[in-house]
Input
Amino acid sequence: MKKKLNIGILHYQVGHTDGVSLELEKWKKEFEKLGHSVFLCAGDLGSADGTLVEGMYHHIPEIERLTLNTFDTLCDFNLEEYSKEMHRWVHLLEKSFTEFISEHKINLLVPQNVWSVAANPAVGVALENVRRKFNLPALAHNHDFYWERKKISLTNTAVIEMMDKYYPPRDPLIKHVVINSLAKKQLAERKGILSTVVPNVFNFDPPDWQEDEFNSDFRSSIGLKENDLIILQATRVVARKGIELAINFVKTLNSPDRRELLIKNGLYNGKNFNRDSRIVLVLAGYGRDDISGTYLKNLRIKARQEGVDMIHIEDQVSHERKLNNGCKVYSLWDTYVFADFVTYPSLWEGWGNQFLEAIKAKKPILLFEYPVYKADIKSKAFEVISLGSETSGLDDLGLVQVHPDIIETAADQAVELLTNKKRRSQVVNHNFQIGKAHFSLDMLRNCLRNLLEDCVINE
Output
C-alpha cells in the first residue's frame, strides 16, 4: 500500500505484559516498518505512549459492575437502569474517540479485542458508533470472544441486541482477524462473519536475551541463590492458566529420588545442585485480572499444602525495565534469562504468547495441550513435555488435576533436560528453528501488508 496511513490502535490497556498488549506492540512496529504512523489509545497506558481514555479501562469498579450485570446476573439494575448506565458510558467514550480520531487524523482503526471479548462492553459500542460516523475502515484484531468465557449469561434483551450488533460488528469496511482456526470457524458459525487467521508471532532475530549489568542481580533480588532452580510461570495469574498443574509438577520434581539425580548428575549449566538447593515456582505475571483474588489464594494454599516453594513477583516485573522509587523493576524478558525451565499448563489460550517467548529464550517447556495448541501448533512438531489434553476432575480447592502418572512422567523428562546439556541443547534449538520458520515477524509483516491492501481507505 503506497498511501501513508494514520492508524489508531485501541485496547483496554497497553504497555503491559498481557498477551494482547504484547501482540499489539508487534503490530504497531510492523505497521511503522511498512511506513505508516501509529497512535495508541487505551484506558491504561502502562509503559507506552498514547492517548489515555480512562473510561476504556476494564477494571474501573463501575465498569466491573456493568460487566457483571452484562454477562452474569442483572443484580444491580433493572432493565431501564442498565440501559441508562450503558448509554452514559457509551456517550462519554464516543466523545473521547471522536477527539482521538480528529486529533491524529486517523484513517484506519485497528481495535484490539474491543469488538470481541467485551471486557468493557461500552467500548465496543462507542467505537463502532464513532467509526460509522467517520465512515472509517477497520482491521479488527480479535484475540478472544465473549462466548469463550467460562461462565456466560446474556442477562437481558438489551445485552442480547448489543452482542448481536456490536460483538463483533458487521460492515464491509471492517476486516476481521482472528488468531486461531477454532475462532475462525466459531465466528463464521455464530455470526456469519468471515475472517483471516494471523497467529501470534515473535521476534526470533538477534540479540538473544542475556545476563547483563541491569539484570545480573535478578536471582538475589527475588531471594534465590545461584544453585536454586527457577521454574518460571510467566503468564497472568488467572484460572484458565492452570497454574495448579505447575504446582503439582514442581512437587513431583522436588521428590527425594529426583533431587538425588539432580545432585548426582549436576545441572545443564555446570552448576551443582546440592542438599540446600531450592526448586522454586516463580509466578512473574500480574494477578489483577483475578478480580476476587480467590484463584491466587487457592494457589497459595495448595502450594503450602504440597510443600511447594512458590513466589509471586508481579511487583518486580513489567513490560520494560525501570526504576520504581529507586528499586529495580525487571522486564518480563529478564525473567526468562534466569529461568531453568518454563511451565505453560494453560487450559485455554487464544494462541499462546508465553509459548513463543519460551521458544525464543531457548528454555524447555512443560505444557497442557490446550485446544488451540492441538489444532494449530502441535503439527509443527515442537518438542515439549506434555501433560496431555484431558483433566481428571477437581481437587478440594476446586483446582484442576491430571492423572498423577502423567505428572510423574513429566518430572522424569524434566530431570533429563535439567541435567543433560546435550539433550537440552538439541531440544531448545530444534524448537527455536521451528518457531523462527513459522511464527516470525517477517510472517506478520507479510500478513499485515496483504490485509492493508484489502482495506478500503478513504482518500
Notes: The CA atoms of residues 70 and 155 lie 6 Å apart. The chain has a mean pLDDT of 95.
